[in-house]
């Protein structure tokens, strides 16, 4: 008899990530399995895998952005596969929700990302494939293997094709300096840093620029864009200090509240992002680069027990 991976590979796509999930499945070469989602009148729902998974290596593709239903749907699918005797259960989470809650930043708060990890492992997950976690240490919360991918593998080729004459990378805050510096070193350019102050979440009260952007084509790099307050404020400030252009390179387009309006009304030339989270609306300034090829290739390497290190550019 053949190995598990030779006999059965199953992919199921959650309702939060239908387009990306189907694209990954197509690149992987396996048609998505049928999942039935039954909703009750009180809001409760039940998932059912409508084909056998016994002895199979099962992949579930689902980003866990709000509402919480997206996370719970994933947990229910994983539990269903475990109880149906799946041999391996790999969760592909292009966007890992609750990743911003990676530590106690004040007394009496939850560490939400650790709680999510506990629930995934209790449900029966045996491996996780994700991308650009908000905090790298979240990998250490898991007791199962985690393949942590980086969007730089699709962003770097795009930046190189822009052939910007006076390129400089920008960090939107001091916490993003490591990421911006990695891009700057790979591309052989300089870096500037925005120092921001917050009075409360999602609201920037003040911002200072560290470095010179006069005559430069700036690309601000970050993992998440939520209300777009920081990015747009930084872009406007950089343009006022003589930058030629300002672009934003963001992995996960959360884009909540006034985000779309802020982007349209800002000095940002272009917002480059991935399809880890589907856009809520179209925008002439937003350019989406798919990560379907990246995830499909890593999934193939995982089932074939091959290295995935070639997928890391920086």
Core attributes:
alpha/beta; 5-stranded parallel beta sheet; single chain; 7-stranded mixed beta sheet; 314 residues
Describe this entry's structure for a reader.
With 314 residues, this protein is an alpha/beta fold. The chain is built from 9 helices and 14 strands. Strand 8, helix 6 (177-187) and strand 9 form a beta-alpha-beta unit. Helix 2 crosses helix 9 (292-303). The relative contact order is 0.13.
Range of strand content: 25-35%
Tell me, briefly, the overall form: globular
Structural class: alpha/beta
The overall strand count is 14
Counting H and I runs of at least 4 residues, what is the number of helices?
9
String of helices and strands: HEHEEEHEHEEHEHEEEHEHEEH
Largest sheet: 7 strands, mixed
Based on CA atoms alone, the radius of gyration comes out at: 20 Å
Distance between the ends = 40 Å
In percent, how helical is the residue content?
Answer: 25-40%
Low-pLDDT segments, ≥5 res: none
- Mean pLDDT score, rounded? 94
Which sequence of strands runs across the widest sheet?
A: 10-9-8-11-12-13-14
Reconstruct the topology from this structure.
Layout: H1 4-7, E1 9-13, H2 18-28, E2 35-39, E3 45-49, E4 57-61, H3 69-83, E5 88-93, H4 112-123, E6 127-131, E7 146-149, H5 152-162, E8 167-171, H6 177-187, E9 190-200, E10 203-210, E11 217-225, H7 229-240, E12 245-253, H8 259-264, E13 270-274, E14 286-289, H9 292-303
Parallel strand pairs: 1-4, 4-5, 5-6, 6-7, 8-9, 8-11, 11-12, 12-13, 13-14
Antiparallel strand pairs: 2-3, 9-10
Helix pairs in contact: 2-9
């Amino acid at each position: 008899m053949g190995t598990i991976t030779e006999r059965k590979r199953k992919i199921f796509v959650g309702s939060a990530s239908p387009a990306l999930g189907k694209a990954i499945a197509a690149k992987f070469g396996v048609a998505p399995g049928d999942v039935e989602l039954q909703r009750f009148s009180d809001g409760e729902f039940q998932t059912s895998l409508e084909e056998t998974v016994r002895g199979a290596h099962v992949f579930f593709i689902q980003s866990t952005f709000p509402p919480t239903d997206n996370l719970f749907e994933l947990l229910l699918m994983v539990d269903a596969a475990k109880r149906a005797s799946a041999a391996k259960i790999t969760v592909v989470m292009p966007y890992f929700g609750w990743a911003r809650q990676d530590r106690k930043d004040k007394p009496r708060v939850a560490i939400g990302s650790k709680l999510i990890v506990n629930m995934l492992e209790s449900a029966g997950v045996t491996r996780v494939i994700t991308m650009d976690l908000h905090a790298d240490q979240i990998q250490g919360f898991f007791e199962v293997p985690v393949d942590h991918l980086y969007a730089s593998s699709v962003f770097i080729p795009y930046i190189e094709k822009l052939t910007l004459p006076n390129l400089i990378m920008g960090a939107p805050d001091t916490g993003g300096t490591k990421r911006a510096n990695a891009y700057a070193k790979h591309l052989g350019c300089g870096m500037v840093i925005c120092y921001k102050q917050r009075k409360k979440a999602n609201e920037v009260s003040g911002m200072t620029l560290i470095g010179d952007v006069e005559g430069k084509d700036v690309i601000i790099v970050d993992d998440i864009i939520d209300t777009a307050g920081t990015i747009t404020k930084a872009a406007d400030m950089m343009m006022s200090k003589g930058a030629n252009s300002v672009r934003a390179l963001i992995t996960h387009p959360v884009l909540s509240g006034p985000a779309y309006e802020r982007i349209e009304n800002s000095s940002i030339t272009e917002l480059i992002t991935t399809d880890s989270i589907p856009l809520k609306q179209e925008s002439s300034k937003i350019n989406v680069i798919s990560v379907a090829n990246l995830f499909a290739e890593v999934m193939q390497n995982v089932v074939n027990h091959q290295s995935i290190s070639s997928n890391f550019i920086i």
